[in-house]
Amino acid sequence: MQQYLPMRRDVLLFVYPGVQPIDLAGPMQAFTTADEEIGGGAYRVRVAATRRGAIQLAGGLPVLASALPRKQPDTLLLLGGPGVHAARRDAACLAAVRRLALGSRRVGSICTGAFLLASSGLLEGREAATHWRACAQLANEFPGVRVRADPIWVRDGAIWTSAGVTAGIDLALALIEEDLGAALALRVARRLVVPMRRSGGQSQHSDTLALQDAAQFGPLLEWVKGNLGRALTTEVLAERLGMAPRSFHRHFLARTGATPAEAVERLRLDRARTLLEVARLPLATVAKQAGFGSMERLRRTFKRRYGVSPRDYDGRLTR
Question: How far apart are CA 268 and CA 81, in angstroms?
Fold first, then answer.
């Protein structure tokens, strides 16, 4: 059995007021489970902050944090949450991140923790992921960072970054796999009842959410959801709102960030995923009820959008 050096055991979860609880609990559970699976000695997980004592997480949950260690950890993970923007304006916090990162074997961020990494200068010239809702802001504020909107996690050398919320568990599993092998990481995933590797990217979880801010077109989109089997052309949608097609197309794109055709496709894909996840219907039935008409059209659209076929997506759900 591979021997683990003491330095490789330390995983430091860096917290501050306003950290999202699941960004802490998800990875912590993954590393703890890995340690249990191997019989101990693989990881020592610590929660630390710039000041020792109770730290209030987002939602009001308190957590007791240790003082930051003098010795750099093997793995430093910066967590995300609504408090990250205050933390990245804290000079002491940034100095601590830089000091800890300097001697760590690898450094990572979860969700919007990428802003703390970027503010510390550690993402300059690198690829990175963050929550899909924060990608544009990260790219605008840090033009030297190559923000990737779709991956669940990204590795660029010794820097690892993840997408939003539960993607911290995916990142932890990837780190565990690097340390202890795929078989052990798979055992951890099974105990946590999560996929070892998700198919597709985080866009598959945010397609319709991105349309919900368009209040002006909300009633129209609700009507579309109930009529996915119809021919939903731009002309049909524009006529329903009493608008000229060209004007409707322009205003819809400006408010939603998607063309009418793209929005219809997203809503059809969302219906198809729901039917696959919940109803477990045959693909031909899914294609018809979601408005794709044919299994081939459903397959092509699913593969282009998510990078995985509907059959593989359905199979992944049942494994």
Answer: 31
**In angstroms, how far is CA 305 from the centroid of its own chain?**
16
Count CA atoms closer than 13 A to 53's CA, side-chain side.
Answer: 2
Asked if residue 98 lies in contact with residue 66, where contact means CB atoms within 8 angstroms, the answer is no
Q: How many angstroms separate the CA atoms of 165 and 23, rounded? A: 6
Strand pairing class (62-67; 53-56): antiparallel
Average pLDDT over the chain reads 88
Q: What is the pTM of this model?
A: 0.68
Binned at pLDDT 50, 70 and 90, residue 273 comes out as: confident
Quote the DSSP letter at residue 51: S
Distance CA 263, CA 240 (A): 16
Phi, psi of 82 (to 5 degrees): -65, -20
Q: What residues contact 55, with CB distance under 8 A and at least 6 apart?
A: 15, 16, 17, 19, 49, 62, 63, 64, 65
Q: Which helix (H) or strand (E) holds 183?
A: helix 182-192
Report which DSSP code applies to 68. P
Residues in the chain: 319
The 8-class DSSP code of residue 78 comes to E
> Going by C-beta distance under 8 Å and a sequence separation of 6 or more, which residues neighbour residue 226?
none
**SS3 label, residue 163:** coil
pLDDT of residue 206: 58
Please state, in angstroms and rounded to a whole number, the distance separating the CA atoms of residues 155 and 162: 9
- Which among 55, 103, 111 is positioned nearest to 76, based on CA atoms? 103
Contact 109, 133 (CB under 8 A): no
Q: Where are the beta strands (DSSP E) in 5-79?
A: 10-14, 44-49, 53-56, 62-67, 75-78
Phi, psi of 222 (to 5 degrees): -65, -40
